[in-house]
Amino acid sequence: MSRLLRIQYADAYYHVTCRGNDRQAIFRSEVDREIFLEQLRQSLEVFNVTLLSYALMPNHFHLLVTTPEGNLSEFMQHFNLSYTAAFNRKHRRRGHLYKGRYKAFLIDADNYLLEVSRHIHLNPVRMKSEANLNERWSDLLKSELTSLPGYLHQKRRKSFWDYGFVLGYMGGDTNQGRSRYKTFVEQGIKRDLDNPLKLGIGSGIVGSEEFITELKQMLGIQGEPAREQPETRQLHRAFTADELIDRFSKVVAVEKEALLARGRQSIEKAMLMELLYRYCRLMQPEIGK
Questions:
Q1: More confident residue, 120 or 222
Q2: Chain centre distance of CA 73
C-alpha cells in the first residue's frame, strides 16, 4: 500500500499518533510521561505548533495539533527523535522506539474537531478493565493521561497548550462552556459512537465533501494520485535551493564550493541539509543531488 500524502499548509489541524515498535511500551513510568510532555513542550515552541488535546497510552500516543506555519513533518520528526533519544538514554537502550513513521489525519475543524477531541480523551476508557464505566469516567477526570482535566478545571492546566479553541465550539472558555464540554465527552461513554477517524482511512482526511473539494482546489489536485504531484510541495517552498545555499554560505562564512565539496563532513553541512529539507521541501535524493 502506498503512503498517504502529507498534506501541509498554514493553520491546518491534525490528529497524530505513533505506536511502539513491536507493540512495546513507550512509557514505563510516570517519569517517562513527564519527559515526554517536556520534549513535546520544547518541540511545540521551536516549531510554533499549537497543542489542543493529547492522550498517553502505554504503547502509543494521540495528539491533536494545529500548525500555523504548515510544518507538521518537521515538528514530528524533531519531537519523535527527541523523545526517542531521551527514552533510550534513561533506559540504556538503543534502536527505534516507534513502529515506522507517525500517522496523521488532516481534520476538518469546523465539522470534526470536537468529535476527534472527544475520541482522544476517551482512549483510556476503551482499554480492557474490570472497572465499570462510571469508575472509568471518574478515573479519567483525575488522570493526567489525557488533557481532559485541564479542559474542565483551570487550576489543572498546563501552560503550553490551547484549551480555548476547542471550548470555543461549546460557547467559550467559561464555566458554562467547560460544563458543556464535560457533558459532550461523557456522552461518548454512554453512547456507542463511531470512531470519527474511520472517515480518513484511505485518504488521510477527516472532513466533509465540501472541505475535501476546497482542499483539492487549494492544492491544485485534479483527481490524479496525490503522491504523483510533487508540485504540492512546491507551493510551500520558502526559498529555492540555490538561494538558501548562497545565504547560508554567507552566514557561516564558508565558501560555497568548500561547503558542498564531495565527502566533506561538517556541522555546517549537516545544518545546510536540514535547512534544505525544512525550507525548500526537498527530499533526501534531491538534497544529495
A1: 120
A2: 8
